Amino acid sequence: MTVKDKVIVVGGGPVGALAALYTARRGYEVEVYEFRDDPNAPSASEGKLALIPVTISERGFRAVENANVPGLMEDISRHSLPVHSRMVHTRDKNGDLKETSMPYSSNGDRIHIMQRTSIGQRILLALSKEPNAKVFFDHKLVTCDLRNKTATFENVKWKPQDGGLMESTENMKVTEQTSKDAERTKSVTYDYIIGADGAHSAIRKQLMRETNVDYEQHYVDVLWCDFYLPPGPKGQRKLDEAHLHVWPDKERVFIVLPEVDGSARGGMVAPINEFRRLKEHPEELEVFFDSSYPGVIPDLMSAESVKEQFFRRDHLSLMSIKCGKIGWEDSCVLLGDSSHTMPPFYGMGMNTGLEDVRVFFEDFVDPAHRENVYSSINTFCPKGVTKAYTDYRIPDVQAMTDIASDHFEELKEGVPGPAVIARKRVESELQKHVPGLDYVPMYSRIVFGHERFSVALKKDAQQKILFAGILASLCALCVAMLVRAGAGVM
């Protein structure tokens, strides 16, 4: 009797869980090893963590939907909050608070906001129903031998728990070595390994030991501090739920995403030296917020709450990572943040990772099985598939990383100037009335479309040339009309 390949996934976040789900649904044995504990388990240290809220858009939804798990898409949609616009909070020339709504698209397209752990929880719950899937929490990768296809994990407690698993995950197939004489390490053999273990990927580090990998890491000269904004005393929302809210201020920005339970999750982004100054002079925090993020204090949080959270929570570095190689022969691939890390300003980090999973399976693994009659169905990844995927995907994820990094400038700007507003209006009209031009704003191509990121970037460059030509023609027409009018007067 032939046995299908065994696949292990390192990392049990949304990307790793989805990769395992795609694998299990194709009939392969799959094991997920996650460094942290069960996301449904209460944690005493949760309040200290720096959390960046997530949005899920068309690319992410498509990846989840194509897992073909009945009810999964509906479950995720039910626990998300659709928003159609960005609300920019500033002061007018008289010093009064001002709100400016900026729709994401002229077609009413929406992004969806979710609590950070929510999507991962739901994919893991779907995975728990697959008979050929196992999930091991609190397992840290110690070593990985890519040549001999073995990995060793240490059983750890990543953070303290108060109680066991919640009822919703009682049936999760989890290995928890709790007896005193339990072995602390576990060696695993595999046929294929998927590294979905985040920006500080241990699998990526091992890959870099085995082969030459062009690697670029860039830190943004800012830090992120997470803030929780509770609902009002009667559970009412303090912010319009149909908007993502932004307070721009030169080199800093405050971003707030409303959540389904009436609360909101915000992030303060400011230069590193400003964080240091505020830590040394906490008495300046309230004045700083009033100047940079008007209305946050006291409308959304008290000064005491801002100070308490600022000093209690981690201050998170933001960085981008590009890799020149994201696979090893026909036995290893990197997906998600392990292969590309981007700042959160475009809201596309998780969406890109989820799309990695769909593209890898649907565009490379599945076609290889259909087209290669000599490939055994028991082999998870036919020869040449990993290289073909990495050669195809690297230009796209590197393009998206650049796009996300550049978007910080737009967020800091807040409400664009008259020239940019005029350009956006012309773009909207061209998109509506001249569909043959395929003139689509960059944001819509990235967030609401499905074409390759590298293609979207090239089309945006072409559109800028086209727009410059249109603008030059309009200016020439205006000059000609003025000349003609002047000649008529004479």
Evaluate the radius of gyration. Answer: 25 Å
Shape: globular
Q: Span between N and C termini?
A: 98 Å
Question: What is the number of strand segments?
Answer: 20
User: Given the helix and strand composition, which structural class is it?
Assistant: alpha+beta
Oligomer kind: single chain
Number of helices: 14
Percentage of residues in helical conformation: 25-40%
Give unreliable regions as ranges.
44-48, 159-182
Widest β-sheet, arrangement of strands: 6-5-14-15-16-13-17-20
Q: Average pLDDT across residues?
A: 85
Beta-strand percent range = 15-25%
Q: What can be said about the biggest beta sheet?
A: 8 strands, mixed
How would you describe the overall organization of this protein?
The chain has 490 residues and is of the alpha+beta class. 39% of the residues lie in helices and 23% in strands. It contains 14 helices and 20 strands. β18 (327-328) and β19 form a beta hairpin. It starts with 5 loop residues before the first strand and ends with a helix. The model is unreliable at 44-48 and 159-182 (pLDDT under 50).
